[in-house]
Amino acid sequence: xxxxxxDERQSLVARKHCKMSQRKSSSSPxxxxxxxxxxAAGGSAGFTEICIMHPLxxxxxxxQIQTTGKPGDPNYYTSVYDCIRKMARNExxxxxxxxxxxxVLVETxxxxxxxxxxxxxxxIFGSSTPTTFFLAGLGSGTTEAILVNPFEVVxxxxxxxxxxxxxxxxxxxxxxxxxxxxxxxxRGLNKGVTATIGRNxxxxxxxxxxxxxxxxxxxxxxxxxxxxFQKFLIGLxxxxxxxxVNIPFDVAKSRIQGPQPVPGEIKYRxxxxxxxxVYREEGFRALYKGLVPKVLRLGPGAGIMMIVYENVHGYLTxxxxxx
Length: 323
Description:
- The protein has 323 residues and is mainly α.
- It is built from ten helices and no strands.
- The chain has helices at residues 6-26, 32-65, 80-91, 101-125, 130-160, 171-182, 193-217, 224-257, 271-282, 291-319.
């Protein structure tokens, strides 16, 4: 029996991670196996995150579309807890999962695209530097936003509905109604696409850029549990930073895609026009509406996603090694 010293064990761990990185970087991002592994790992990460964190996304949207009201109003929310309590009381506990079907349907392919395109863009840039990580993240977020925006429009419409959950229109009914009344264009299923690009592009840029830069420069623990916990913490910090940077675009997106203040009159049209309008009418703090539930959701959610992705990706890579 061979006994390794602590330094030797750390060296073995470092060599193991180096070999994994070399195998990962040497494979073409367009090969069928690499695409399939990234799709499976990214999809698993997205599905897990949305199932755990969706109620906070509903709360975030309610805050972002809230423009007027007073504390006595049952539809006016003063805190995350107040929103959850009033929604559960007035609309039913399941109302916290309003609009969950579009994310469930889209988060699996969305996160799959998110991680796959990050690897593709990273390979295109041809290096593993912080600049590459940030630029690849930006490209990943832009691609992701264009693909998922119609689902976002339906999700926001459902989350803004204040009727009892059991009598709320279904996802398909909401989608049909949007297409019937507004079509598929920039006033219909694709409205707010620029705001979605700004939101997702900035978030992914910070998320991937920060995570991979930090993760590549610090020592990887030998213990698997500690490795996962370290990745969770880095992912959490990356998610929080991404939220702080992109939330004005998220507020603009919710205003554009959500119900307009006066029925039949479009107040919020363009992304930067909506940001400017919110700032002029409601002040700078209004651009950060929904920040608390957003951070509570996407901070831990970002950590959860990275753990699930890294572990599923690692398992599948070992299960289906290169010939």
